[in-house]
Amino acid sequence: MEAVKLRTYDGVQLAASLYLPEPGTDWAEGIIVCHGLGSRKENYADFGVRASEAGFAVLAIDLRGHGKSGGRLDGNVFNDVAAALSYLQSRPEVNPMSIAIRGSSMGGWLAVHTAAHLVDLTAVVAYCPPTESLLNITVEEIAMVQRGHASTVVSGDIPRVDVDSLMRLLYRLDIRKAARRINPRPLLLVHCEGDKVVPSHTSQTIYAAAEEPKAFWLLEGGDHRFAQHDPDTDMRMLEWLSMVRSGRR
């Protein structure tokens, strides 16, 4: 693993971890990893190792306001993915024309929206992505915490958030409309039936709105965290990426 620093177009410094395949691998396929709200890149180290051993180059970032990155989570968060994409495209080990994005929870929401605008992202994998209305509830809870109240919704670390800026972004967006703009690039949605944080019908709604090529894996049981950290699901997803790259989906 190589620790790297990125700088976004609006001047925020991001911390990231780069996982590369064995030396000698020519032009590996790249994957940008985006974590959920209150999480950090280290929670996806296992995926980085698994994917690099399978021949992929993985860049896991701390989103702004999280982990070792600077700034606050705000309406410019899409710039974080743009910086990650630019960095991976600059690495000689990585095929700049084959970079996917994998996001979990809020990171899945971010993956769908950024792919709708960044056409250089060649495939999208979103685990249990929320809608804007669900994210609004969480951001409102963070605003309560910032005012000194206890949280009943937000688990894990409370990130640094510019609530007003982020809320203005959320009010302008609709993840279902963004999903429709991803084609002809492939979209994979993964959700657990037992997810009580983001109900599985959320992904079903996004899937229905998206155009082909698309896939939806509804996993039996599980919870909000299971699929995004399950080794078997990781390997299945990497096989899916390889198949869509080769046109065998």
Summarize the structure.
The chain is of the alpha/beta class. The protein has helices at 45-53, 78-90, 106-115, 132-146, 163-172, 175-180, 201-209, 226-229, 231-246; strands at 2-7, 13-19, 28-34, 57-61, 94-104, 121-127, 187-192, 214-219.
Describe the secondary-structure layout:
Blueprint: E1 2-7, E2 13-19, E3 28-34, H1 45-53, E4 57-61, H2 78-90, E5 94-104, H3 106-115, E6 121-127, H4 132-146, H5 163-172, H6 175-180, E7 187-192, H7 201-209, E8 214-219, H8 226-229, H9 231-246
Parallel strand pairs: 3-4, 3-5, 5-6, 6-7, 7-8
Antiparallel strand pairs: 1-2, 2-4
Helix pairs in contact: 1-9, 4-5
The 3D shape can be described as globular
- As residue ranges, the low-confidence spans are none
Put simply, the count of helices is 9
By CATH, the superfamily comes out as Alpha/Beta hydrolase fold, catalytic domain
Descriptive report:
- The protein is an alpha/beta fold.
- The chain has one domain: Rossmann fold.
- It has nine helices and eight strands.
- It has an eight-stranded mixed sheet, sandwiched between helices.
- α1 crosses α9.
- The protein is globular and about 55 Å long.
- 44% of the residues are buried.
- The model has no long low-confidence stretch (mean pLDDT 93).
Features of the shown structure:
249 residues, Rossmann fold, 9 helices, 8 strands, alpha/beta
